[in-house]
Amino acid sequence: MTNTNKMNTLPLSRERMLRAKVAYTPRHVNLEAAVTLLTGDDVEPKAGDLVLAKIEKIGQHAALELTTGRRSTLFTGDEIVVCYGNRYAPDQFEAEVPHDLAACHLVAAGGVAAQALSWHVSMKPPTVIVPIGLLADVKGQRINLSGAAIAKPGLSHPLPYTLAVVGTSMNAGKTTTVANLIYGLTNAGLKVGAAKVTGTGSGKDTFFMGDAGAKLALDFTDAGFPSTFRLTTAEVEGIFTTLTNHLAKAGVDVIILEVADGLYQEETAALLSSATFKKLVNSVIFAAGDAMGAMAGVEWLRRKGLPVVAISGLLTASPLAIIEAANATGMSIIDKNMLRDVTIASKLGIPAKN
Q1: Could you report the per-residue pLDDT of 200-242, keeping only the tens digit for each?
Q2: Torsion angle, CA of 200/205/209/211, rounded to 10 degrees?
Q3: pTM
Q4: Which of 278, 184, 178, 169 lies closest to 218, judged by CA?
Q5: Domains along the sequence of the chain with CATH
Q6: Which of 86, 183, 198, 318 is most buried, judged by most C-beta within 10 A?
Q7: What is the phi/psi pair of residue 296, to 5°?
Q8: Which residue blocks in 163-261 are alpha helix, DSSP H?
Q9: Is 261 in contact with 200 (CB distance < 8 Å)?
Protein backbone atom coordinates (compact mmCIF):
# COMPACT_ATOMS: atom_id res chain seq x y z
CA MET A 1 0.00 0.00 0.00
CA THR A 2 1.05 3.59 -0.48
CA ASN A 3 0.54 6.39 2.04
CA THR A 4 0.38 10.13 1.55
CA ASN A 5 4.03 10.62 2.54
CA LYS A 6 5.44 8.90 -0.56
CA MET A 7 6.41 5.89 1.50
CA ASN A 8 5.67 2.44 0.13
CA THR A 9 5.29 -0.75 2.14
CA LEU A 10 6.08 -3.74 -0.04
CA PRO A 11 5.95 -7.46 0.78
CA LEU A 12 9.25 -9.24 1.44
CA SER A 13 9.24 -12.98 0.86
CA ARG A 14 11.04 -15.43 3.10
CA GLU A 15 12.69 -16.94 0.04
CA ARG A 16 14.24 -13.60 -0.92
CA MET A 17 15.59 -13.12 2.57
CA LEU A 18 17.12 -16.59 2.58
CA ARG A 19 18.93 -15.83 -0.68
CA ALA A 20 20.41 -12.58 0.63
CA LYS A 21 23.86 -12.48 2.19
CA VAL A 22 23.47 -11.33 5.81
CA ALA A 23 26.34 -9.38 7.34
CA TYR A 24 27.96 -9.75 10.74
CA THR A 25 26.67 -6.48 12.17
CA PRO A 26 22.94 -7.45 12.25
CA ARG A 27 23.69 -11.05 13.33
CA HIS A 28 21.53 -10.88 16.47
CA VAL A 29 18.41 -9.56 14.72
CA ASN A 30 15.48 -11.94 14.26
CA LEU A 31 15.19 -11.72 10.48
CA GLU A 32 12.06 -13.86 10.45
CA ALA A 33 10.26 -10.72 11.61
CA ALA A 34 11.30 -8.94 8.40
CA VAL A 35 8.26 -9.42 6.15
CA THR A 36 7.95 -5.99 4.53
CA LEU A 37 10.17 -3.36 2.94
CA LEU A 38 9.89 0.40 3.38
CA THR A 39 10.67 2.28 0.18
CA GLY A 40 10.03 5.71 -1.24
CA ASP A 41 11.38 9.25 -1.39
CA ASP A 42 10.35 10.10 2.18
CA VAL A 43 12.14 7.19 3.85
CA GLU A 44 15.06 8.60 5.85
CA PRO A 45 17.41 5.93 7.21
CA LYS A 46 18.69 6.08 10.78
CA ALA A 47 21.84 4.54 12.20
CA GLY A 48 21.13 0.90 12.98
CA ASP A 49 18.29 0.48 10.46
CA LEU A 50 18.57 -2.77 8.51
CA VAL A 51 18.45 -2.45 4.74
CA LEU A 52 18.17 -4.91 1.87
CA ALA A 53 20.49 -3.64 -0.85
CA LYS A 54 21.92 -4.75 -4.18
CA ILE A 55 25.59 -4.65 -5.12
CA GLU A 56 25.96 -2.29 -8.09
CA LYS A 57 29.74 -1.89 -8.44
CA ILE A 58 32.54 -3.67 -6.61
CA GLY A 59 35.12 -1.35 -5.08
CA GLN A 60 37.29 -1.52 -1.97
CA HIS A 61 35.12 -4.08 -0.19
CA ALA A 62 34.89 -7.10 -2.46
CA ALA A 63 33.66 -9.44 0.28
CA LEU A 64 31.06 -9.30 3.03
CA GLU A 65 31.72 -10.63 6.52
CA LEU A 66 28.82 -12.97 7.24
CA THR A 67 27.18 -13.68 10.59
CA THR A 68 29.57 -16.64 11.01
CA GLY A 69 32.62 -14.48 10.38
CA ARG A 70 33.35 -16.05 6.99
CA ARG A 71 34.02 -13.55 4.23
CA SER A 72 31.74 -14.13 1.26
CA THR A 73 32.95 -12.88 -2.12
CA LEU A 74 30.57 -10.29 -3.53
CA PHE A 75 29.25 -10.26 -7.08
CA THR A 76 27.47 -7.50 -8.93
CA GLY A 77 23.75 -8.10 -8.44
CA ASP A 78 24.09 -9.80 -5.03
CA GLU A 79 21.47 -8.80 -2.47
CA ILE A 80 22.82 -8.15 1.01
CA VAL A 81 21.40 -7.30 4.45
CA VAL A 82 23.45 -4.66 6.23
CA CYS A 83 22.96 -1.80 8.71
CA TYR A 84 23.14 1.92 8.12
CA GLY A 85 25.85 3.51 10.23
CA ASN A 86 28.50 6.22 10.39
CA ARG A 87 32.19 5.39 10.03
CA TYR A 88 35.41 7.03 11.21
CA ALA A 89 38.55 5.28 9.96
CA PRO A 90 41.54 7.48 9.01
CA ASP A 91 43.18 4.55 7.20
CA GLN A 92 39.97 3.72 5.33
CA PHE A 93 36.69 5.66 5.10
CA GLU A 94 34.90 8.60 6.63
CA ALA A 95 31.19 8.09 6.03
CA GLU A 96 27.77 9.14 7.27
CA VAL A 97 24.22 7.83 7.19
CA PRO A 98 22.52 9.34 4.12
CA HIS A 99 19.20 11.18 4.23
CA ASP A 100 17.40 8.93 1.74
CA LEU A 101 17.48 5.54 0.05
CA ALA A 102 19.59 6.67 -2.90
CA ALA A 103 22.63 4.67 -3.96
CA CYS A 104 25.37 4.76 -1.34
CA HIS A 105 28.32 2.62 -0.26
CA LEU A 106 29.40 -0.43 1.66
CA VAL A 107 31.98 1.21 3.94
CA ALA A 108 32.86 -1.75 6.18
CA ALA A 109 33.10 -5.45 5.42
CA GLY A 110 31.19 -6.19 8.62
CA GLY A 111 28.07 -4.76 6.99
CA VAL A 112 27.78 -0.98 7.29
CA ALA A 113 26.00 1.10 4.64
CA ALA A 114 26.70 4.83 4.42
CA GLN A 115 27.62 7.68 2.12
CA ALA A 116 31.41 7.82 1.88
CA LEU A 117 32.73 11.36 2.34
CA SER A 118 36.47 10.75 2.07
CA TRP A 119 38.96 7.90 2.07
CA HIS A 120 42.65 7.15 2.44
CA VAL A 121 44.68 7.34 -0.77
CA SER A 122 45.52 3.64 -0.44
CA MET A 123 41.85 2.71 -0.69
CA LYS A 124 39.98 1.91 -3.88
CA PRO A 125 36.71 3.80 -4.38
CA PRO A 126 34.02 2.32 -2.12
CA THR A 127 31.73 -0.48 -3.24
CA VAL A 128 28.46 1.00 -4.53
CA ILE A 129 25.17 -0.44 -3.28
CA VAL A 130 21.58 0.37 -4.22
CA PRO A 131 19.13 0.15 -1.30
CA ILE A 132 15.97 -1.80 -2.13
CA GLY A 133 14.22 -0.94 1.11
CA LEU A 134 14.44 -0.83 4.89
CA LEU A 135 13.51 -4.09 6.58
CA ALA A 136 10.23 -3.79 8.47
CA ASP A 137 7.87 -6.01 10.43
CA VAL A 138 4.28 -6.99 9.71
CA LYS A 139 3.09 -3.61 11.00
CA GLY A 140 5.46 -1.71 8.74
CA GLN A 141 7.73 -0.72 11.64
CA ARG A 142 11.38 -0.49 10.62
CA ILE A 143 13.75 -3.04 12.16
CA ASN A 144 16.74 -1.49 13.90
CA LEU A 145 19.80 -3.10 15.44
CA SER A 146 18.90 -1.51 18.78
CA GLY A 147 15.96 -3.91 19.06
CA ALA A 148 18.38 -6.85 19.35
CA ALA A 149 20.65 -5.24 21.96
CA ILE A 150 21.64 -7.21 25.03
CA ALA A 151 19.88 -6.07 28.19
CA LYS A 152 21.58 -3.57 30.45
CA PRO A 153 22.33 -5.51 33.65
CA GLY A 154 22.57 -3.87 37.01
CA LEU A 155 26.03 -2.74 38.05
CA SER A 156 28.07 -5.62 39.44
CA HIS A 157 30.02 -4.95 42.63
CA PRO A 158 32.88 -5.35 42.54
CA LEU A 159 33.85 -5.58 38.89
CA PRO A 160 36.75 -7.90 38.09
CA TYR A 161 40.13 -6.28 37.49
CA THR A 162 39.68 -4.28 34.29
CA LEU A 163 42.47 -3.30 31.90
CA ALA A 164 41.98 -1.16 28.79
CA VAL A 165 44.17 -1.02 25.69
CA VAL A 166 44.16 2.31 23.86
CA GLY A 167 46.44 3.72 21.19
CA THR A 168 47.70 6.51 19.01
CA SER A 169 45.49 5.67 16.05
CA MET A 170 43.85 2.99 13.96
CA ASN A 171 46.33 0.16 13.27
CA ALA A 172 48.61 1.00 16.19
CA GLY A 173 48.57 -2.62 17.34
CA LYS A 174 45.75 -2.46 19.89
CA THR A 175 43.92 -5.64 18.88
CA THR A 176 47.14 -7.64 18.62
CA THR A 177 48.10 -6.40 22.09
CA VAL A 178 44.68 -7.39 23.45
CA ALA A 179 44.72 -10.86 21.89
CA ASN A 180 48.23 -11.71 23.06
CA LEU A 181 47.45 -10.47 26.54
CA ILE A 182 44.31 -12.64 26.63
CA TYR A 183 46.42 -15.62 25.59
CA GLY A 184 48.96 -15.03 28.35
CA LEU A 185 46.34 -14.50 31.06
CA THR A 186 44.35 -17.54 29.96
CA ASN A 187 47.45 -19.73 30.08
CA ALA A 188 48.08 -18.38 33.56
CA GLY A 189 44.75 -19.90 34.59
CA LEU A 190 42.57 -16.79 34.54
CA LYS A 191 39.11 -16.61 32.97
CA VAL A 192 39.23 -13.62 30.66
CA GLY A 193 36.33 -11.55 29.34
CA ALA A 194 37.01 -9.14 26.48
CA ALA A 195 35.21 -6.39 24.62
CA LYS A 196 35.79 -3.89 21.85
CA VAL A 197 34.04 -0.83 23.21
CA THR A 198 34.17 1.52 20.20
CA GLY A 199 34.70 1.30 16.44
CA THR A 200 32.81 0.09 13.35
CA GLY A 201 30.97 -3.23 13.16
CA SER A 202 33.16 -6.20 12.26
CA GLY A 203 33.64 -9.58 13.84
CA LYS A 204 37.36 -9.82 13.08
CA ASP A 205 38.58 -8.39 16.38
CA THR A 206 36.17 -10.21 18.68
CA PHE A 207 36.81 -13.50 16.87
CA PHE A 208 40.54 -12.86 17.43
CA MET A 209 39.85 -12.33 21.14
CA GLY A 210 37.91 -15.58 21.29
CA ASP A 211 40.62 -17.48 19.44
CA ALA A 212 43.14 -16.19 21.99
CA GLY A 213 41.13 -17.75 24.81
CA ALA A 214 38.54 -15.22 25.96
CA LYS A 215 35.63 -16.91 27.73
CA LEU A 216 33.33 -14.26 26.31
CA ALA A 217 34.07 -11.57 23.72
CA LEU A 218 31.61 -8.74 23.00
CA ASP A 219 31.50 -5.50 21.08
CA PHE A 220 29.31 -2.42 20.69
CA THR A 221 27.10 -4.19 18.13
CA ASP A 222 25.98 -6.47 20.96
CA ALA A 223 24.76 -3.28 22.66
CA GLY A 224 22.74 -2.35 19.55
CA PHE A 225 25.03 0.05 17.66
CA PRO A 226 26.56 -0.53 14.19
CA SER A 227 29.35 1.91 15.03
CA THR A 228 30.18 4.47 17.71
CA PHE A 229 31.10 7.41 15.46
CA ARG A 230 28.86 10.41 16.19
CA LEU A 231 27.28 8.88 19.28
CA THR A 232 26.84 11.06 22.33
CA THR A 233 29.19 10.65 25.26
CA ALA A 234 26.29 9.24 27.29
CA GLU A 235 25.65 6.59 24.62
CA VAL A 236 29.31 5.56 24.51
CA GLU A 237 29.46 5.39 28.30
CA GLY A 238 26.28 3.29 28.20
CA ILE A 239 27.96 0.82 25.82
CA PHE A 240 31.01 0.71 28.08
CA THR A 241 29.05 -0.08 31.24
CA THR A 242 26.72 -2.54 29.50
CA LEU A 243 29.59 -4.60 28.08
CA THR A 244 31.71 -4.58 31.23
CA ASN A 245 28.79 -5.63 33.40
CA HIS A 246 27.85 -8.46 31.04
CA LEU A 247 31.42 -9.70 31.18
CA ALA A 248 31.38 -9.48 34.98
CA LYS A 249 28.10 -11.39 35.05
CA ALA A 250 29.78 -14.17 33.05
CA GLY A 251 32.06 -14.80 36.02
CA VAL A 252 35.39 -13.82 34.50
CA ASP A 253 38.47 -13.09 36.60
CA VAL A 254 39.71 -10.18 34.51
CA ILE A 255 38.26 -7.93 31.80
CA ILE A 256 40.33 -6.71 28.85
CA LEU A 257 38.89 -3.84 26.80
CA GLU A 258 39.91 -2.35 23.46
CA VAL A 259 39.06 1.27 22.71
CA ALA A 260 39.28 1.87 18.96
CA ASP A 261 41.06 4.60 17.00
CA GLY A 262 43.33 7.17 18.63
CA LEU A 263 43.26 9.62 21.49
CA TYR A 264 42.23 12.48 19.19
CA GLN A 265 39.14 10.70 17.88
CA GLU A 266 36.19 12.54 19.43
CA GLU A 267 34.24 9.64 20.94
CA THR A 268 37.42 7.92 22.16
CA ALA A 269 38.65 11.10 23.83
CA ALA A 270 35.28 11.68 25.48
CA LEU A 271 35.14 8.14 26.89
CA LEU A 272 38.68 8.21 28.22
CA SER A 273 38.03 11.60 29.81
CA SER A 274 34.85 10.43 31.52
CA ALA A 275 34.44 9.75 35.21
CA THR A 276 32.90 6.37 34.31
CA PHE A 277 36.06 5.17 32.55
CA LYS A 278 38.33 6.41 35.31
CA LYS A 279 36.17 4.73 37.96
CA LEU A 280 35.91 1.30 36.32
CA VAL A 281 39.31 0.83 34.66
CA ASN A 282 42.17 -0.32 36.88
CA SER A 283 45.01 0.08 34.39
CA VAL A 284 45.80 1.03 30.79
CA ILE A 285 48.28 -0.27 28.21
CA PHE A 286 49.12 2.20 25.46
CA ALA A 287 49.79 0.97 21.90
CA ALA A 288 51.91 3.12 19.61
CA GLY A 289 53.84 2.90 16.37
CA ASP A 290 56.86 4.93 17.44
CA ALA A 291 58.53 6.53 20.45
CA MET A 292 57.16 10.03 19.77
CA GLY A 293 53.60 8.71 19.66
CA ALA A 294 54.20 6.68 22.80
CA MET A 295 55.51 9.66 24.72
CA ALA A 296 52.67 11.95 23.62
CA GLY A 297 50.05 9.32 24.40
CA VAL A 298 51.40 8.49 27.83
CA GLU A 299 51.51 12.19 28.73
CA TRP A 300 47.91 12.64 27.51
CA LEU A 301 46.71 9.70 29.62
CA ARG A 302 48.57 10.92 32.68
CA ARG A 303 47.02 14.37 32.36
CA LYS A 304 43.63 12.65 32.46
CA GLY A 305 44.65 10.85 35.65
CA LEU A 306 44.57 7.42 34.02
CA PRO A 307 46.83 4.62 35.32
CA VAL A 308 48.94 3.76 32.27
CA VAL A 309 51.20 0.84 33.22
CA ALA A 310 52.98 -0.19 30.03
CA ILE A 311 53.52 0.49 26.33
CA SER A 312 53.05 -2.02 23.51
CA GLY A 313 51.90 -2.03 19.90
CA LEU A 314 53.66 -1.73 16.56
CA LEU A 315 56.79 -0.10 17.95
CA THR A 316 57.71 -3.39 19.63
CA ALA A 317 58.59 -4.80 16.19
CA SER A 318 61.73 -2.61 16.26
CA PRO A 319 64.44 -3.02 18.92
CA LEU A 320 65.57 0.56 18.32
CA ALA A 321 62.01 1.89 18.70
CA ILE A 322 61.70 -0.01 21.97
CA ILE A 323 64.85 1.64 23.30
CA GLU A 324 63.68 5.07 22.17
CA ALA A 325 60.25 4.65 23.79
CA ALA A 326 61.71 3.35 27.03
CA ASN A 327 64.16 6.25 27.23
CA ALA A 328 61.49 8.82 26.38
CA THR A 329 58.83 7.58 28.79
CA GLY A 330 60.66 5.63 31.47
CA MET A 331 58.01 2.94 31.13
CA SER A 332 58.03 -0.80 30.53
CA ILE A 333 57.75 -1.77 26.85
CA ILE A 334 55.96 -5.11 26.43
CA ASP A 335 56.16 -7.04 23.17
CA LYS A 336 54.02 -9.96 21.97
CA ASN A 337 56.21 -12.62 23.54
CA MET A 338 56.03 -10.93 26.93
CA LEU A 339 52.26 -10.54 26.65
CA ARG A 340 51.87 -14.26 25.90
CA ASP A 341 54.01 -15.34 28.85
CA VAL A 342 52.21 -16.81 31.87
CA THR A 343 54.00 -14.29 34.11
CA ILE A 344 52.28 -11.32 32.47
CA ALA A 345 49.57 -11.10 35.13
CA SER A 346 52.09 -10.55 37.93
CA LYS A 347 54.14 -8.15 35.79
CA LEU A 348 51.05 -5.98 35.23
CA GLY A 349 49.81 -6.27 38.81
CA ILE A 350 46.70 -8.23 37.84
CA PRO A 351 45.43 -10.15 40.89
CA ALA A 352 45.79 -13.93 40.89
CA LYS A 353 42.65 -16.06 40.59
CA ASN A 354 40.80 -16.42 43.88
Answers
A1: 999 999 999 999 999 999 999 999 999 999 999 999 999 999 9
A2: 140
A3: 0.94
A4: 178
A5: 8-147 (no CATH), 161-348 (3.40.50.300)
A6: 198
A7: -65, -40
A8: 174-187, 204-211, 233-249
A9: no
